[in-house]
């Protein structure tokens, strides 16, 4: 627990020190342009995530068959990379780029949806009766 506390305290200090070192080496204008560009890229990543990636993950789950863990965690990784790109500093940008690298995870074998045995709650038993109400010919659209 103390290690995590020290990490949270040292992380901002490391980001500030690295920004000062970059400013000293490349100049303030270049570093500010780089920070603005990385923040805009992070915003674009977050904006493009939205519901589309969650729906694609749901489609992968519903399709059955072999689904890689990588494809399930990709939306979360991209969202986290976008947040890290918004945070100013080179350390967070490097972590974001590492998250965006296309590492393949282990495959997860899922049974197809039709091949699963029916559970007791899957079947609804009941009776129905069709009731057609008479329609007045004056109310019909012709």
From TrEMBL:
<dbReference type="GO" id="GO:0016020">
    <property type="term" value="C:membrane"/>
</dbReference>
<dbReference type="InterPro" id="IPR007313">
    <property type="entry name" value="FxsA"/>
</dbReference>
<feature type="region of interest" description="Disordered">
    <location>
        <begin position="112"/>
        <end position="142"/>
    </location>
</feature>
<keyword id="KW-0812">Transmembrane</keyword>
<keyword id="KW-1133">Transmembrane helix</keyword>
<dbReference type="Pfam" id="PF04186">
    <property type="entry name" value="FxsA"/>
</dbReference>
<protein>
    <submittedName>
        <fullName>Exlusion protein FxsA</fullName>
    </submittedName>
</protein>
<feature type="transmembrane region" description="Helical">
    <location>
        <begin position="79"/>
        <end position="103"/>
    </location>
</feature>
<keyword id="KW-0472">Membrane</keyword>
<feature type="compositionally biased region" description="Basic and acidic residues">
    <location>
        <begin position="126"/>
        <end position="142"/>
    </location>
</feature>
<feature type="transmembrane region" description="Helical">
    <location>
        <begin position="26"/>
        <end position="46"/>
    </location>
</feature>
<feature type="transmembrane region" description="Helical">
    <location>
        <begin position="53"/>
        <end position="73"/>
    </location>
</feature>
């Amino acid at each position: 627990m103390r290690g995590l506390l020290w990490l949270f305290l040292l992380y901002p200090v490391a980001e500030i020190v690295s920004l000062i070192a970059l400013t000293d080496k490349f100049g303030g204008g270049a570093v500010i342009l780089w920070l603005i560009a990385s923040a805009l890229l992070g915003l674009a990543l977050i904006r493009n995530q939205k519901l589309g990636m969650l729906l694609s993950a749901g489609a992968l789950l519903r399709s059955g068959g072999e689904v890689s863990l990588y494809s399930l965690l990709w939306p979360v990784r991209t969202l986290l990379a976008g947040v890290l790109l918004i945070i100013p500093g080179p350390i967070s940008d490097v972590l974001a780029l590492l998250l965006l690298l296309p590492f393949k995870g282990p495959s997860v074998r899922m049974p197809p949806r039709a091949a699963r045995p029916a559970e007791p709650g899957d079947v609804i038993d009941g009776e129905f009766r069709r009731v057609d109400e008479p329609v007045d010919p004056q109310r019909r659209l012709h």
